[in-house]
Structure prediction request, 670 residues.
Amino acid sequence: MMNKKPTVAIISLTACNGCLMEIINLGQLLKGVVDRLQITEFPLVRSGKSPTKFDIAFVEGSVVTKENLKTLEQLRKQSKFLIAIGACACIGGIPEIKNYRDREKLIKQIYKSTKNIENPLIKPLKKYVKIDLEIPGCPPNKKEIAKIIASLLVGKIPCIPQRPVCYECQIREYNCLLQEGLPCLGSITLGGCQAVCLKSGEICSACRGFLSKPAAKNLIKIFKKQGLSDQDLNNLLEKFGVRDEFEKILKS
Amino acid sequence: MKKIVINHINKIEGHAGMEANILNGKILKARMEVKEGVRLIEGILIGRPIEEASLITARICGLCPAVHCITASKALEAALKIKIPEPIVNLRKIMLNGQIIQSHALHILMASSDYLGLGNSLDLMSKHSAAFQNIIKIREFGNELIETIGGRSVHPMSANIGGFLKAPNQEKLKKLLEKQPEILASAIDLSDWFEKIKINKFSRKTEFVALKNNKEYAIYEGDISSSEKLSISAQKYNSGLIEFQRASEIINMVKRNQQPYLVGPLARLNIAGNKLNKNARQTMKKLKLDLPCYNTFHNLTAQMIEIIHLIEETQKLLQKHLKSKNKIYRVSYKIKAGYGVGACEAPRGLLIHAYQIDNQGKIVKANIITPTAQFLFNLEKDLETFIPSLKKLSPNQKRKKIEMLVRAYDLCISCAVH
Prediction:
């Protein structure tokens, strides 16, 4: 699919740069990646003029400003294969929490003057342009990023297996927090993170988005039995912006 | 009137430009233009459970998430009036060391390329491969410290109110301690390479602000102190540091007595340089950094020195932890209403979190003051002094020099705006 050394752009919109950090955190592996790719646009680490066409583009973050939208639309036009990377780009992520609140009120808590400050609803990038591949997670797993790049290099479109976080949690024999009475979303969340939160004793909050056919109604029954209030459930689902998605699933 | 405009400055974290107005060769005003979108992090925290603060504020910044986790936890512990025992404090200090080590190493990679005539920092890989390997090794060590204790290097999840959700793996900590001498050697090796970099000349007197305590080179705790007699507890931060917003700008900047001040590695060295560890002190001598130092270009040198100091410090802390028989990872707490402030030294300088919470354990109000928000005003004043000295240079050279000064600050725009 690609010519010999694909040209690559690594761009961030409004973001924390954590996804880009995971690329840089490839560390020793980074050399292999840099040798096999021609990274021509990567403002975090390079300056100077760059070409206007890319074989592969990675984009992290959310569209908050009009400038962000322009960057995204232009990147789409310039790129053969556009990859949304991280929870903000794929499912809305932490910034989407404000969608569920009165966001005009929120902004006034922070700024004396809110003139000229853009404060739109937060949407996944696929709502704005066609996205060819999503690498989920907050942050994404760097081993998964490396695997995806390796697979693109041999001309294969990578695909993330439809397995829940629970699968990875169980084979590692971590404590099941759902059985311990905590509201863990691992059973309906797309795995591939090696259940890293469970390893630390933290519940899964679905930062990688849901499986394509999640057993959400069953999970709700368990949560209700545990005595989880509607407000606490909403809080949990809002954290990475999947409340809207979850409500859609329940209705279907 | 002439204008110098730089729309986007590369090799910094986030989106920012600069504009300077010049009349008859004299600069009237320099402004940093922040072009990041706002995520309203302080707003979205309102009404949410206090345990989420460390997880949500970590997402302010992918370069220094661990320090946001720990500062949020400290602030909430102050609100709940919980005392954190020393074993937990020590583990938090190791995490902060890891955070600063890896962030500084990345910035040395980003900013040194200017001095080496490389546009692309990744070109160090082929053209200065030994230095590049050292930087990667040092960063990985820093990341492993955070990961082993916090669960993950970017957005750790184990560090929260009261301590850690899970005890760190002792075998891994032992291995990190065994690795420490090799990493220290790499850092000293890197400082030999760094010695060849000729840092730009510049000087403008300013006030330095950092945490200070009598025991150590303060990273985790201390009073907010300055080179000009400021000394206040974190709880009273807003009696000395005043936030302000200029018309139609998206950043709440900070000033002291109407004046700008500097936070970060160079400010810390100026305030507590006498508390550095042995190798770091030797490195400071070798790199010819004399205190007080008012050349902000030397922020980069200060980062090199701090890397060495913190690698040395990490050895002491790891030894103390591994030897200790009294291993506590978490203290329990009762929810009650209150107000609390936490302050830590982030890679780029003083970081403050302040929270008001209710008796249900929900956040009522949040205020977060980041290092970049504090030093942007100082950077503008530096630019106003620096740009007129570039009169004889071509527009292209001028631009390069201006960008180098901006980069020396190691801006984090995502933190500044959040």
Observations:
- The mean pLDDT of chain B is 95.
- The domain at 2-417 of chain B is CATH 1.10.645.10 (Cytochrome-c3 Hydrogenase; chain B).
- Chain B has one domain: 2-417.
- Chain B touches chain A through 61 residues (CB under 8 Å).
